[in-house]
Structure formats: structure tokens, C-alpha cells
Amino acid sequence: EDYEIFDIVSDLEAAEGKGTTFYSWLDVSPTASSADIGRAYRKKSLELHPDKNPGVKGIHDRFSRLGVISGILRNAESRERYDFFYKNGVPKWRGTGYYYARYRPGLVSVSVFLVLLSSVLQYIVQAMTYRGEVTKVRKLIAQARTIAWGPKQNPIEGPRKVRVPIGEGEGSRSVEVLVHGDDVFLVRSLVSRDDPSG
């Protein structure tokens, strides 16, 4: 029974234009009663009757289609099936049967999606890296001030050059910084503790 509905919908759209529904063709609302559909059928049948339209190409097909459509809409069970497909879409014929059309992205849309996704991921990684580096710099500044001013953090007058260790353990690297007031300047970076020139 559903295939009959699919065939009629397909034929109706082919003959009357894409998007034409049973209701729009009969000029009634989807909530119309059976009596309203009967009146609309009689009116449309007078308009499409082959005796009133001699020589009009395809009039017999249109008139017979009208009878089938009104029969579907007057029967409660078949109307319920049609209303389901009216609201959810009618599957299209695909050579071996009726199938719902699914969105299948093309090369351009997939490429755009991948570029956007990789850009967002790159931004997230860069933001995390930036936060980590800012934390390291703040820690280095705090260590430099502690070494220059002592644990009580009392600022001293004038600049003071200090070495701040970067890593842990023996042979770890350090940086030379100049603490001057609230400012901390990098003098030399990555100096080995064992380096005699440092």
C-alpha cells in the first residue's frame, strides 16, 4: 500500500510540479474532513473530466490519478499512512526500490570541515602551550626575585644579576637574569652550571 502512495506522489509531482501534494492539488488543508475532500474531489473532477477536455494530452491520466488520490484521502487508514509520509518526506525511487535521500557531503564540504576542525585543534593546542609558557615565565620571575631579594621579598636598591636554575638535579641548566626593581630582564639563557665561562 505504501508503494502505491509513493508511485502516486511521484507521478503527481512529475505531472503537476515538484512539491505538489495531494492536499495542495485538491486545494484543501491537511486537516480537511472527508466531506471537504469529497467536495474538492467533485469540483476537481468536473474540471479534469475527459468529456469536458477533449483532445487535452494526459487528461485521462490526470483524471484517474484524481480518483486514486481521493480514494486514499477518504480511507482513514491509507490517509494516516499518507499523512505520515507527508510530514516526514516520501522516499525516492532509486532503481531497485524506494529509499530516503541522505545527505552525502562532497569534497568541498569535507575539506572545509577538516580545515575548520584542524584550525580549532591548533588553536586549542596553542592556547594550552601559551598558558604553560606564561606559567613558566611567572615562576622564573618569582624565583629570580626570591634569589635577588631573599625569602622575605624585600626589594633592594639598584640592579642585581642572579642565576636561576631551569631544571632539577646536577648539571641542570640555568639562566642569568637582571632584577631591577619590579622588572626582571633575561641576560643569558641556558647556561650550564658546569660552564666555566658562566
UniProtKB/TrEMBL annotation:
Domain J: 21-86
Signal sequence, renumbered to the chain: none
Keywords: Membrane, Signal, Transmembrane, Transmembrane helix
Primary localisation category: membrane
Topology of the protein relative to the lipid bilayer: Single-pass membrane protein
Subcellular location field: Endomembrane system
Keyword Membrane: yes
Listed transmembrane segments: 106-125
InterPro entries linked to this entry: DnaJ_domain, DnaJ_domain_protein, J_dom_sf
One Pfam family matching this protein: DnaJ
GO cellular component, one term: endomembrane system
CDD domains hit by this protein: DnaJ
Protein name as it appears in the record: DnaJ-domain-containing protein
Organism this protein belongs to: Calocera cornea HHB12733
